[in-house]
Amino acid sequence: MSTSAQNPWADPLPKPAEELKTYLATLPDFADSKRMEVRPTHLEHAAVGWKNGWIVKAGATFADDERTKMTGSWFCLREESLDKARERLSKDVYATGGAWDMSKATITPVAVAKH
User: Fold this and answer.
1) Distances (CA, A) of 97 to 86, 94, 103
2) pLDDT of residue 4
């Protein structure tokens, strides 16, 4: 799939963004998450994903309203299929570097409202 083994977000979109499907992914962290260790690389890679149009919106999830502990991530992303969305997320450094527990990830097709 990816032309970049290091950054799965480095590929150009295979077709115009409006022709791709949109997915909402919730990606919980492992209890002993390595999130902070790989975070700089994740943020660097994700910036490329934003620029290339894969990522619509994204951010962290938290344990409480005070945001005292990150518990995972959420993504609204573009992709050609549900399987390809899971594959691309599985190659993110948070997945390969021990932050996300991909066995508990949920990825759902969604529509993004126009505003």
Assistant:
1) 16, 5, 14
2) 43
